[in-house]
Design brief:
CATH topology of the largest domain: Jelly Rolls
Radius of gyration: 20 Å
Shape: elongated
Number of helices: 2
CATH class of the largest domain: Mainly Beta
Distance between the termini: 16 Å
Structural class: mainly beta
Helix content: 10-25%
Number of domains: 2
CATH architecture of the largest domain: Sandwich
Largest sheet: 5 strands, antiparallel
Amino acid sequence: MARHRLGFKVGAEEVKLEGTTTKLNAWQSGTDKSKIDADALERAVSEWFDSGDVSCDVGLGDSSTRTTLAEVPADWQALVPLSAYMEVGGTVASGETVSISIKAILDDGTEIEIATYSVTGGTGSSTVGADTIMANLMTNARAGGVSLDGRRITSVVADVKTSATSTSATAKARVMGVKT
């Protein structure tokens, strides 16, 4: 991955950052614009994350099996999922339904569903973009009476299940977004 170095001077102080910068908003409203807020500058650095295609175990008899797709690295604050891919493969029996639910896990353990895909008697895939993910985040947070204010997404998981008691179905999921 290409990394960029950003440096500038404010007064007699020189500030250097390493990493991919997607947004630089070091100023807080109502503050002296001649001074840099170091904490805001630190938070302004973000990079893409990509889980890659992750094979997920398929839970039997409508009991989900959970697979972690992405976790916030120790030196970052949060994940912002922007795109999800879900795929059902293998052999899915006639009448068998395989379901994938991708959830954002908040730092307090709250789970919010951000993408779903289900197929009956066959295979297929679905890609869900940022508009749908953000709409699902809003809808499911409101339905659960959850306020996201002051919380952060620390991981993204896939819960996968089949209606059958045995299966030859397979599942994959992938999530991409920004880590901040």
